[in-house]
């Protein structure tokens, strides 16, 4: 059963992914009329995603304006929930998903090792994407990136009192004021917790846990709690949700601490067992198109690896932010430790 | 007698009692016993490499987080039981035995709180009583000119959780106690009065002891509901930073899943449930004396006199907390931008409606699945319950009592435990039911069967067998008399049971949450998913649609003439 698969997977992770077949990436493909016709005949594509639901639905809408004959079924949940779901489905022989996307890079190492992914490289990815933002074997590529950021309500905390560093959050003046997402649910927060525990040590989280932090699940949720005014300060949460709040005129401000801000890369891939292989291939190419990536940036506030995407004015460019990168190969073996430490310090 | 009946059945050859009995026994055994078997099997199995082990139970006892989750869950459940009892008992007495104005409408409104899914109630209370953005706290700060760190109530606490659950479980106590009070004979109270007892003495020494069993039984049900509830704790306890046992079991399914530990952690919940139900049974078993004199007179009505307005204030407060405020909060959030917005023409928006109805692709599928499953479950369960209670009450087949036990047994299986058991039973390459709506149908049938069976069997005991005997004498088979004679006589009960099961199915979340996939989304699950990403506006829209549709279905089912609707009015 699937427990066996996972434990085997964990062992294999320790021994690096050497045993997986190291085929060359397939030749890049373009959207041809034949592909479009075949995709239209299938009429449907199922997209499991961890992107905020309104952003994902907007993207689906854009796809549908281009291909009205193809319905997009968006299934949005937290990264870890998406992963859990596909694990349960594949272990029982259910193949309902065509294209998958989560913000936890560990998942794609795992999918690749299990041989669940169909290698394919859209022309756009081959031409424009940086080499370290796509799988050398063509199994997946970085569809989006975003930061897990600290942010606060400017009407509830004035700028002078606002935190400047991660350690500032331990100050008693922020007790009862903070909200934070959960690493067991959110891939973004799992990544962020990992890099920050490496950087600051677990005793940082132990002290943070004593600050009576409101615990929510998804990394899309802390920004929404800020918008509601339920809490004044978020410890982590998606940068893109804050961008969207800024666009709506909510008085919030992002803090990029000098120690660095965790970066979460959201990969996307097509499944080998995709029920709608042609629609999947078409949709996958669409995901990396300038049009879709620009929409993600404009409407969704996501960061893109497409060099031609123009970011909205007022957003701090990635080049000016110190980024904390996570190594999925190092993260995977310590997931259980992170979860149990987290539960010890934060209660859930 | 039994061998005679058996021989008769054989002689006639066309009586389907035996095959029906055998088939039902098989179906119910599979429904109930198979998940339990796998649950026990997995709890003794090593997750990593297979093979028998006690590690899971050792981990269960040694893991402080699990023990803490159990402790908190039990504490929460007891708190809910006590609070529900304290709210519901005086209210039941006021409604049943006093001249309080508007008694009928109060009963109807309590039913409305019963129909509200507890997870929706919990979300409503997030909107009302979150420490900073909660409407109550905003008003409190505005009224007294306090700064932003002050708050009046905080729902994200242990006590807040108890309150939010009690608001939607107190109807269990209310209904049982009100029914018992309706039946308490007035002559015992009159006797007390004649002997010089003041009305308070009579209440204390006669009336309360007589309804005590009903109070305790109702409280036990409330405790059981709270103990096995998933939605409300997931919504309110996790932000507060603690797990109860159901959310803890759910978290064991996260990557990497620990199925063995999840199974082992579920078993004590099953044991506690069985113990509580046995306690309830032994208490209810002694209730006999209250009903004994049930026909000896109309219940005494106490004149409230000057206390009337205090009583009205109490009832109105309870109804505000359990019905009016939550519903108002849901309505407000569905039509305004964010929760914190004040209501004015500027903030009114249909944005959430537009999103749910036209942009969110899961809505239609979830609505269709939910109502399809509601109809199927209600129909199948009512049919099975009808036949089973017929076989059991009329004792037409020897050993039919066992069937009754099987039909009641799922009561002892908490939803989340059943979810784990069903996942282990049917989510494997042999069955491949996971990912289809059939696994959900099986889950809902199992969960709702006891309720349906209880309703049908009590209805059956009220129908004298002589009409059926007439049919049998005329040469009809047992099943034919059942369908042609008994079922029409029972149609109001059948409709009531059907509605009960339907509403129960629609509000189910704890088993569902483990068993749904992309294609088998239900409204309850997308509400839960949306809550995890903080989209309260969309949740409220879905909640309103769900509630409106449930009320509509119940209303229509009760009004369709073919189904004997007109007599249903009394049920509200």
Automatic annotation (TrEMBL), chain A:
State the Gene3D superfamilies in the record: Periplasmic binding protein-like II (3.40.190.10)
Signal sequence coordinates: 1-23
Q: Which protein is depicted?
A: Iron(III) transport system substrate-binding protein
Presence of the UniProt keyword Signal in the record: yes
Query: Any idea which UniProt keywords this protein has?
Result: Signal
- The protein's organism comes out as Mesorhizobium escarrei
> Which Pfam families does the protein's record reference?
SBP_bac_6
TrEMBL record, chain B:
Q: Which residues form the ABC transmembrane type-1 domain?
A: 70-280, 367-557
Q: Does the keyword Mitochondrion apply?
A: no
Q: Give compartment(s).
A: Cell inner membrane; Cell membrane
Give the primary localization class.
Answer: membrane
| Native source species | Mesorhizobium escarrei
Q: Which UniProt keywords apply?
A: Cell inner membrane, Cell membrane, Membrane, Transmembrane, Transmembrane helix, Transport
Q: How does it sit in the membrane?
A: Multi-pass membrane protein
Q: Which family does it belong to?
A: Belongs to the binding-protein-dependent transport system permease family.
Q: Which Gene3D superfamilies match?
A: MetI-like
Show the stretches that span the lipid bilayer: 21-44, 70-95, 151-174, 206-227, 259-277, 309-330, 371-393, 405-427, 433-451, 536-557
Q: What is this protein called?
A: Ferric iron ABC transporter, permease protein
